[in-house]
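The protein record quoted for completeness.
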Amino acid sequence: MLKMEQVSKFFNPNTADEKLALTHIHLHLNPGDFVTIIGSNGAGKSTLMNIISGAILPDIGNVIR
């Protein structure tokens, strides 16, 4: 099971280069679920996968793996 609640991620917070990569993401996947993530460059796909894997932490929200 994977559950994400209110997940948001900022890069370079409180600077002129601040970027909001993810905003209030809610996701609940059960074992065996199959999901495809699509989007344009800069949409947050890699950030989402890095948070799911634990490589980076969300600034706001919870991830339950």
Q: What stands out?
A: DSSP finds one helix and three strands in the chain. The helical segments are 45-53. Residues 2-64 form one domain. The first strand starts at residue 2 and ends at 11.
